[in-house]
Amino acid sequence: MSVFFRSLSLILSILLISGCSVVNVLKLRNANNNIEPIWSSTESQFKIPTDYVGEKVFIYGTVNGVDGFKFMVDTGASFTFLFDTPKVVALNLPEGYELNLGGWGDENDSLGYQTSMRTLKFGDLQVKNFQGAFLRVSNTPYFETADELIYDGVIGHDLLRHFVWTFDKKANQVSVSNKPHNVANGIKGLSFNTFMTKISVEGNIDFGNGHTVEHEFIIDTGSRHYFKLSSEYPKANQIKLPDAQVTAADFGLSGKAEHQRVTLPKISLGDVQIKNIKSNIINSDDEDDYWVIGNATLNQFITTIDYKTSKIYLESYEDQSFQSRYNLFGLEVRKLLSGNFIVRYVMPGLPAIDAGFHAGDIITQVNKVNAHSISKDQWLSMSAIPGKYEICRESLGCKNIQSQHIKGYSN
Length: 411
Known about the structure:
13% of the residues lie in helices and 43% in strands. The protein has a 6-stranded mixed barrel with strand order 4-5-10-6-9-8. It has a 6-stranded mixed β-barrel with strand order 14-15-20-16-19-18.
């Protein structure tokens, strides 16, 4: 059965079971179909104020004439979200129909409702009467505490699909264009398909031992990871995954999803070869689930997503080759408004769990450096370098951990 008919069958089954909750989600997916964006720049391309936090990318915009809203750019999101940050709450946006919003995770879906904005603006790009979803931190397992709300919302496919977006992490810059990408340096574009608001490209994955598979890969700038794959695919096709694995967790709109992580030999996207890619093997009953290229991979290129011509361009940095970073501490953390880090998950078998760290711990200092002076990207780099680290927790004192490479996984 093709991916299209399998997805269609799943949608019809869900509709029969879930009724109006799914109908409302589908309704919001199409709510902005007739929106005509306003482009007031005299240039065909301009830069948007940008902030990279770890592997995720954020841009700043204006809602209903109020400046300074921070949005994550998420090609994997069907529509635009707002969270109940103080700035958003102060807008007093209208409350529309209810929404049950699912995503990664094995817990409960997030509860929200439809809302609308009179204007949504990023520089000289503007849309009027734009609809989106509103989520309270108390109604989503994606967040543990309101202090994790370091951004105000998420820009999804409903806005992104009108333009051409270029992401350059090294320059800390996002630019947007209303014209097809001007290809330079002979970079070849990868054609992408769009289905159910997801974009995907054809590629190949090398599992090792001569087992190479051609498949579609979803492009997801909202994922902080390198690659995600359904656990059912290797199982159903008798593919042996590497013995060196770690247990980890990710968090989405449906809560925590524990999974295994391995390193796979190679993924090929056209002429681009991505070797030794850290991969999340997500529990699933369908072997065609996931197959997601995340932003940790895309950020190692200057990535242009051209919705005008349905092409993606991956331009290599001259002084940088692809490399996976590994979490050798065993601490999955998020940055907080306070500048500290909150531990969301402690990975079994790695140093932090032996040192007595727990989910919910607040990390205030690493090697005598205050956490508010450590960016999420610096944290990721530190956690990938073996060594001795003193990590201090609020009200719980400091602990030394010794991290080291994991043979067959991180080296």
